[in-house]
TrEMBL record:
Sequence intervals crossing the membrane: 12-36
GO term, biological process aspect, one: trehalose biosynthetic process
Cofactor: a divalent metal cation
Catalyzed chemical reaction(s): alpha,alpha-trehalose 6-phosphate + H2O = alpha,alpha-trehalose + phosphate
Signal peptide coordinates: none
Stated role: Removes the phosphate from trehalose 6-phosphate to produce free trehalose. Trehalose accumulation in plant may improve abiotic stress tolerance.
Keywords: Hydrolase, Membrane, Stress response, Transmembrane, Transmembrane helix
UniProt-listed Enzyme Commission number(s): 3.1.3.12
GO molecular-function term, one example from the UniProt record: trehalose-phosphatase activity
Family as reported in the entry's similarity comment: Belongs to the trehalose phosphatase family.
Highest rank taxon of the organism: Eukaryota
Name of the protein described by the UniProt record: Trehalose 6-phosphate phosphatase
UniProt cross-references to Gene3D superfamilies, sorted A to Z: HAD superfamily/HAD-like, Trehalose-6-phosphate phosphatase related protein, domain 2
Amino acid sequence: MCQLHTGHKNKTVWIVVGVAGGAVLLAIALLLWWWLLAKRPSAIDSFNKITANWQGKTIALFLDYDGTLAPKVDNPDEAYMSSEMREVVQELASLCATSVVSGRARDKAESFVMIENLHYAGSHGAEIKLIDETEAYEPARKYVPVINQARERLEEAIKEIKGASIEHKKFGISVHYRCVEEEEQELVKKLAKQTIKGFSELTVTKGDKVVEVRPKAEFNKGFAVKYILEQLARKNNWDSSQVVAIFIGDDKTDEDAFKVLWKRVGGLGILVNKKRKWTKASYSLEDPAQVQKFLQMLLSWKKKAEAEV
Ligand SMILES: [Mg+2]
């Protein structure tokens, strides 16, 4: 009886050890799988491979600004791009359709880049202005009145809380609480959420000490890339199968653009990051200095290709 009991106990121990061991092995395998898949080859080292089939193709180039063309800095108002970077982008823009696609307001992005012959998409694609158009395409324009109304309610809701402030953007509202006393920060978040509940067209996301309010409308960097490609194809009679679209960006919001290009034949996403990251980009560059080097290689390649035609 006692032997039977001990045998049963041993069996249970072995099952537990087996399951635990299996779980550890599975975790290691998953980690290895992630480690291998998250590695993206360098766009510089792979340049010849990347451009191998590009002869005769039209290039559409899309560039994020912060962390891509300009290094990230503590004060976003001081995120300047170098004159060398400006020169190469400007020269490329005369040979390829080039767009800057930024999370910043369009006029802000334009004032930093200071290149005229570019298409600009600002506010994550909520305002897109093509070179030859006088008016910007604003997919969220119809939400401006409701955003203004929500802003007034938010101002009313948080007016008693010291340090809370509201930043009004054309297509969104940021409720900042970085300067609010610690014990009142939760209250700001709660009041903002409660207020926006009354606006079915708006949605709330959390940032770093900020509540972001934006329309539920579908716009992001992926939509912006699609829209610009469609417009350029229509205006220039492009055969879309002969267009190579490249997006270079460093941020989470750039993944929307990488996703679009991942699915597209002739799409190329390049992530700017030193670390391994789960991404839909196909290649990587480490920092804006490498972005500049890649753009210079692209410019030389394009000039050579034009000369051979
Ligand atoms: Mg960026």
